Amino acid sequence: MGFTIEDMLIISKSKYKMEMIAGRNGWANSISWLLMVEDTVITKDFRGKELVVTTGLGFVTEEKLLELVTALDERHAAGLIINTGHYIKEIPESIIKFCDNCDLPLLTAPWDVTMSEMIKDLTVRIFFQTQTDEQTSAALIKAIEKPGLKDEYIEELSQVFDVDGRFQIILLTTDDLDSMDSVERKRIGYRLQIYLENISHNGHFFYYNGYFVLALNAVDDASAKEIIEGFMSRATHRMPDRHIYVGVGSAVNDASNIAISFRRAVFAARMSIEKAESLTYFDNIGVKRLFYSISDPLILKEMSVDILEPILEYDREHKADLTLTLHSYLENGGSIKAVSDELFIHKNTIVYRMNKIKELLDTDLENGRERLMYYLATELLPF
Hints:
Elements: H1 5-15, E1 19-22, E2 33-36, E3 50-54, H2 62-74, E4 79-84, H3 93-102, E5 106-110, H4 115-145, H5 154-158, E6 166-174, H6 182-194, E7 203-208, E8 211-217, H7 221-238, E9 244-248, E10 252-253, H8 258-274, E11 279-281, H9 297-303, H10 305-318, H11 322-331, H12 336-343, H13 347-361, H14 368-379
Helix pairs in contact: 2-3, 4-8, 11-13, 11-14, 12-13
């Protein structure tokens, strides 16, 4: 996940007497660049993940400092380092509270530390980590595209991952992602990466084939769920103008099986988009898992649309919901009461609909084979 706030603190705590005083939940934020800022004007050009250093020259009042941290939060910066002891001797409580509420890491380094040396040192480290990240991304892409050619990616992955351990692929996308230019896509990617909490060396984030990819390594189910749900909460709150779709692949063991998790995540992501749902776990989609590897769209059409055409046509002409009713009826084992409760429709209406469905399909739905056939057909349709 790049050179993070945590990485920086490990190096800087003793070397530069750096301390983290607020926004501790942002410890895993990746840093794209380090730069000195003494005026908020420059923040308008931020793309995300910038780590700002200030002496406080332009932010001597509490109001000005609050203006700075507000701008950094809005621009999805990685954090802020304040060179304390001269222009800013003490951090106001309001600033600490703001950074804690926004999970914006706020760090201090004393005035006797030479800022130019610190910035140069950390910038070099960020550069080398960026190179390592690009190599890791390339190796993961090889694992996805050529899983059988293990020699082409395993050595590179072994530098950062437990290659014999557990991997899980999570895909994130948003509207028009493919049509964006690379600058806009990178900006969106930076923002999304900032929202991923509690990930540092056990995860890697990159763009590939129309998706932002998060590869998790050695992360158990509970922790993965916490990461995903925390991300969804933050993304929904901080990006209300964009709908984020997430598909979660199955967890697999060994780096050679990363491709399996990726393909399943693609299927889950496509389901999220089709159903306009934010989050889909491949392992939770039941019988639909049978269809994820079918590449022939004609087969899927023959198994769904063609079989259900009489009631699909009825729904189109009468603006009815026979198809949804049939799906609920079969999923609930033929219980009229259960369908009524699920769809919030009177039982008499459900009885009428089911009689109409049986008439149109020319079946009494008593045969187990027919029930299975129609259930699979409705499962293949987006509702």
